[in-house]
């Protein structure tokens, strides 16, 4: 499991590191609005900055989202299945679709980046000539990390098939709804009941 957790940590570190792109996007976009509409002096780099930052965030957040099981899935029926059946379905999908597709992404992305570096490709959408070969280099890098995370996810499926339950994931930031559900599960495990808010309100009135 230490190898799987190492891959999870790598995906988590990558995702959180590139999350700073959101701050750069926000500051850059705000600055562009200010100088364009108040000073009538638009920049020549804001558009390039926005799609480069968003592209980098989109690419490098993929492995992190997979490590948190955060990708959208049609789980109306899936969530009602036994965990071993869920693991079998996921394992088949990882092997048949995810890993081959990501392998193609790495291969083609490498050729894509190599060609871009060959002539020091620059943006054609602004007079600034912003370099975009660093962004294209992220395609095979993101593919590699996503491939490793896919192997870790497939290994989780194998462990679930063997043990009958999903192995725990590393603790991380959670949505409020998910945190509340986990608290409710812990209460049920310890035989505690959920506080009845209406009773408390009636007692307060009395």
UniProtKB/TrEMBL annotation:
GO CC, any one term: plasma membrane
Keywords annotated in UniProt: Cell inner membrane, Cell membrane, Membrane, Transmembrane, Transmembrane helix, Transport
Subcellular location, record wording: Cell inner membrane
Pfam families in the cross-refs: DctQ
Entry keyword Protease: no
Residue span, Tripartite ATP-independent periplasmic transporters DctQ component domain: 27-159
UniProt-annotated stretches for the region Disordered: 183-206
Any one GO MF annotation of this record: transmembrane transporter activity
Biased composition (Polar residues): 195-206
Segments crossing the lipid bilayer: 17-39, 45-66, 87-110, 130-152
InterPro entries: DctQ, TRAP_DctQ
Membrane protein topology class: Multi-pass membrane protein
Assembly information from the UniProt record: The complex comprises the extracytoplasmic solute receptor protein and the two transmembrane proteins.
Family: Belongs to the TRAP transporter small permease family.
Protein name per the record: TRAP transporter small permease protein
Species: Ferruginivarius sediminum
């Amino acid at each position: 499991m230490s190898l799987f957790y190492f891959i999870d940590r790598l995906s988590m570190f990558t995702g959180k590191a590139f999350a700073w792109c959101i701050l750069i996007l926000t500051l850059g976009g705000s600055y562009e609005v200010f100088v364009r509409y108040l000073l009538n002096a638009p920049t020549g780099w804001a558009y390039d900055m926005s799609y480069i930052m968003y592209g980098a965030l989109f690419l490098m957040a993929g492995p992190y989202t997979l490590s948190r099981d955060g990708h959208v899935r049609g789980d109306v029926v899936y969530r009602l299945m036994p965990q071993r059946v869920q693991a079998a379905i996921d394992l088949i999908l990882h092997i048949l679709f995810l890993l081959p597709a990501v392998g193609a992404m790495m291969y083609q992305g490498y050729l894509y980046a190599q060609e871009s570096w060959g002539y020091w490709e620059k943006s054609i959408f602004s007079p600034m000539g912003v370099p975009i070969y660093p962004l294209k280099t992220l395609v095979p890098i993101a593919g590699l990390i996503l491939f490793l995370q896919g192997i870790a996810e497939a290994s989780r499926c194998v462990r679930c098939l063997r043990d009958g339950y999903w192995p725990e994931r590393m603790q991380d930031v959670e949505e409020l709804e998910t945190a509340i559900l986990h608290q409710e599960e812990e209460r049920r495990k310890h035989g505690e009941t959920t506080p009845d808010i209406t009773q408390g309100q009636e007692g307060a009135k009395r």
